[in-house]
Amino acid sequence: MKLKKLFGKILGAGLCMGMLIGCMPGGALQVKAATEPNYLTFTAEEAGSTLSLSWASASDVQTSTDHGTTWSAYARGTTITLANVGDSVSFKGRGFVANNRANVNHVRMTGKIAASGSVTSLIDENGGDPNVTLPSDCFAHMFQDCTSLTQAPELPATTLSGICYVFMFQNCTSLTQVPKLPATTLATACYRGMFDGCTGLSLTTTKDADHTLAWSLADATEELNWNAIMFEGCPNVDLGNGSKEPQMNTVYYQTCNHSYGSDGKCIYCGTEKAVDIVTPTPEAAPAAGITNAQPNGGTPTTPNTNNQAAQNTTANVKAPVTGEASSMASVILVLLIAGGLAVILVGVCKMRKHCK
What gap in Å lies between CA 185 and CA 160, rounded to an integer? Predict the structure, then answer.
């Protein structure tokens, strides 16, 4: 009798658990890391591009050529060759400090290379934490004179340290866009000369056909020389009356490297893709005495004067994704487990009776 009561309690608990799991929203049982890794990555836009990295202080600097799956120790100053277009290398480390010495060339590059991911993966081995603590001077002059750099990495830190970004991209003449700067706590000279000599940048106070991507600084308390000569030596940057020093609470506009979505709009600035108008080329008239006759007396075929392929009207329909369980499926699964346990317990009970 006691065994039957125990069985009833177990079955009831199983049913309750099934109902609870079935009512949970999708993904509620998944556990995620506090921050997803976002490693500093360099990708070749030209075959045979090279780069090397040096520093004043850092520990456990490692590289990965398979997007962070496997890592190898990196010796300071070692040249890495990206043999093919699209080849990439990622970096991570601890406590990276470039230092505040000019003309050191902490990063050396040849060819054409785009940076992506977070530069702070050299600080905390992760790069995904916006609350990371930056050492003073950490990225000062880091990419100075890297004329091969076509895209800046992400700079997600919300709290800056003294001269952390000073002259960070000085003379990076191939840069065409200013990265987001979300910091809300500034420090002395944090942005000083950050983009000095970046002649490929174009930034203005007015949105027009050439400047469609909005850019602004997060609202923060100003510190001494925080934005001094930030865009000095950038002839196409005019932040109002020829100024090279951006202000908070002001929206500026820069050129956009458009990438269009399925709706025909740029995923960055929302600009609609221009439609190319094709003007038909008139066909030459047949020479005298020559007719456009068809074999076997067939009807002449109307020419395609636009020389265009027939339009593909097939819609892209997303197929159901296998492995996605519904709430009802979760309930059924738990009930089946509970039922299995019940059958086992009943069998055990009968066996014990027969053994007596």
Answer: 6
